[in-house]
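job 3f2a | input accepted
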Amino acid sequence: MAAKKNDKTKLIIVLVAIVAIIAVLYRMGIFEMVSIENMQKLKVWIEGFGALGPVVYIGIYVAAALFFLPGLPIALLAGIAFGPIMGGLWALTGATLGATAACFVARYAARSMVEGWAQTNPAFKKIDEGVEKQGWRMLMITRLVPVFPYNIQNYAYGLTKINIVTFFVVSFICMAPGAFAFTFMSGAIVAGESPAQIMMYLAIGAIFFVAVSLIPGYLKKKKGIEAA
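job 3f2a | predicted structure (228 res):
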C-alpha cells in the first residue's frame, strides 16, 4: 500500500515537472523552432548564447528525448551550428544524456505511467524480451539499426533489467556513427563556397551511414546476435 502511494507521489511530481518544463519551452518558442524548416532560426538562437551554446543545445536534446520531440532536426542542427566534428560530439552527448534521462524516468520516477504505455505498444515487449535473451547486445543492435524509434527505445529500456551505466556507455558508443553521419551531412551546408570541402563532408557522412548499415550484419555473422 505504501509502495503504491509512493509511486503515485512520484508520478504527480513528474507530471508537475513535465507541465512546468513544457510551459517554459513553449514560452521560449522551442516547439515552434524544432523543425527542419526552422533550423536556421534555432541556430541563430543558440549562437546568441555564445560559449554556453553547446550547453543550451545539449539541454534541448535532453528535452527532446524526454518529451518525444523530433530528433532529426536537432541532430542536423549540431553540424550547422558547431561544425561536423564538434557538432557530432555535442549531438552524441545530448542524445546519450537525453536517452539516459528518459530511461531513468521510466525506471524510477514514472514507471507506472510508462508501463501503461508498454501494454499498448508491442515495441516495448520486444525490447524487454530481447534484453532477457541477449542482454546489452539488444541495446547495441537497436542503437545501430533504428528498428524502434529513438524516443520509444529510451523509455522501453527503463522497464528492462539493463544496468543504467551499461545503457549509457553502449548508447554513447553505438550512437556515435549515426550522430557524426548527420553532422557531417548537415555540416556540408555551411562548409563555405569550396565544392571540394562540401564533397568531402558529404563523403564522410556517407561513409558513416554505410558503416552503420554494415555493422549489425557483421556482428550477427560473428556472434550470432539476432536483431529484433
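job 3f2a | Residues 2-223 form one domain.
job 3f2a | closed
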